[in-house]
Design goal:
44% helix; alpha/beta; two-stranded antiparallel sheet; 12 strands; 17 helices; TIM Barrel; 8-stranded parallel beta sheet; L-lactate dehydrogenase
Length: 442
């Protein structure tokens, strides 16, 4: 682990973060203030947040069987290590929607980040900018579209000045910027939708991602127990995108002053589903506004929907079950990833989301056909502990985990050696992840 003996490669030596932690402990007696072991990290978050924050981040639909299915699916796929392979340098880089990024990891769109830290979405946007990783902003954010973009750009500029990681070119204005996507919850007022799209494009979000599995929140008992819906408690936490939107305020500003739930009820989780016909209109509008930049559907769980997304003109899809928060008793997303990748992987960009916790999880998802993964709860847990420092520690740990796994498992390039490589993994239909108990056996 001597950094002076490491040759330069395509990727930063993320593995050295482990050495940094070890040396701080050995030489200075400085230990991490919280564990990055995913199970322990989730558990310790209970001590950092109030009930509203903790349960909103961790609630699942129904009995939580879908969340469990996501983790069981990862457990059943096993990595097949190779030996005597030159992995002295690794190439974790990949290209996503025209952006060359240093690792196949994106920040998933998570709403209401002020529940987890006062600076809210400014924190993950900053860390994403520092590391050059794509950041996706939620329509249910607690910071404005413009403020989050500014924080992301500022951090990306600092990254390039310090040259702490490589600079990557992309259509968003050269290597001074990090990729930035906008996740849309689409209401039924087209003027507001178009206002959001224009704001996003002007602020440098150059991929539009429509969530299609959450027109209404799923049944989440642990939130029900404490009436955990911050949007109804006054203020703009979770409502900031609407409170800062000129089209929404012009139409509903007076109602919004009296009812803090107006934004979320009318424009985000409005309870009235769209159909494929509306998708064609949205793709056309985004293409007109952005000059043809990619449109992505988030919420794909079967081959038929993936093929339909390709047919109507989507550039990409996110294979996800909303981390088990919408449909109880559903399949784990990793279970359906291979067949979806076989059907459309050569035609579209496939992102994977739902249950990613470790570098091994990232590896498995890429091997089964994802071009990149999205992580959500991990960074929320990190920022819940120490704000910006906690979020940074968790994501740098995930990058180090993936980098070290590639090194010791004998895989040099994420795109050449891992992507869609069924020889890198093997399915084991037996057993359940540790800690799930006898009652969870299928």
């Amino acid at each position: 682990m001597d950094p002076t003996s490491k040759p330069k490669g395509a990727s930063p030596h993320y593995s050295l973060y482990q050495r940094e932690v070890f040396r701080r402990g050995g030489e200075l007696g400085q230990l991490p203030s919280f564990s990055v072991h995913a199970d322990e990290l989730q558990e310790s978050t209970k001590k950092k947040l109030n009930d509203r924050g903790y349960f909103y981040a961790n609630s699942n639909a129904g009995l939580g069987w879908t969340d469990r299915a996501n983790r069981e699916a990862f457990y059943r796929w096993r990595i097949i290590p190779r030996t005597l392979v030159d992995t002295n340098t690794r190439d974790l880089t990949t290209t996503l929607f025209g952006h060359r990024i240093p690792a196949p990891i994106c920040f998933a769109p998570i709403g209401i980040n002020k529940l987890y830290s006062p600076k809210g979405e400014l924190i993950p946007a900053t860390i994403a900018g520092e590391l050059g990783l794509p950041y996706c902003l939620s329509t249910a954010a607690s910071q404005s579209i413009e403020d989050v973009a500014a924080a992301n750009d500022k951090a990306a500029g600092t990254r390039n000045e310090s040259n702490s990681v490589h600079s990557y070119d992309g259509p968003n204005g050269g290597n001074a910027k990090s990729p930035r996507f906008f996740q849309l919850y689409m209401g039924h007022d087209d003027d507001i939708t178009l206002s959001l799209l224009n704001r996003a494009w002007r602020s440098g979000y150059d991929v539009l991602m429509l969530t299609t599995d959450t027109w209404q929140l799923g049944w989440r008992p642990t939130d029900i127990n404490i009436a955990n819906y911050i949007f109804y408690y006054g203020g703009t936490v979770g409502n900031e995108v609407g409170a800062s939107d000129p089209a929404f305020i012009q139409k509903f500003g007076e109602e919004f002053k009296k009812d803090s739930g107006k934004w979320i009820d009318s424009s985000v989780w409005h309870g009235k589903a769209h159909t494929w016909d509306k998708i064609k209109w949205l793709i056309e509008q985004w293409g007109r506004i952005s000059g043809g930049r990619p449109f992505v559907i988030k919420g794909i769980q079967n081959v038929q929907d993936a093929l339909k997304a390709y047919e109507v003109g989507c550039a990409g899809i996110v294979v996800t079950n909303h981390a088990g928060r919408q449909v109880d008793g559903a399949i784990g997303s990793l279970e359906v990833l291979p067949e979806i990748a076989e059907a459309v992987g050569d035609k579209m960009t496939i992102l994977f989301d739902s249950g990613v916790r470790t570098g091994a999880d990232v590896f498995k998802a890429i091997a089964l056909g994802a071009h990149a993964v999205m992580v959500g709860r991990l960074y929320v847990w990190g920022m819940s502990h120490e704000g910006e420092a906690g979020c940074r520690h968790v994501i740098k740990s995930l990058l180090a985990d993936l980098d070290i796994l590639m090194t010791v498992a004998g895989y040099q390039s994420i795109t050449k050696d891992v992507y869609c490589n069924k020889d890198a993994v093997k399915f084991n239909p037996y057993g359940i992840p540790p800690g799930h108990g006898e009652h969870a056996k299928l």
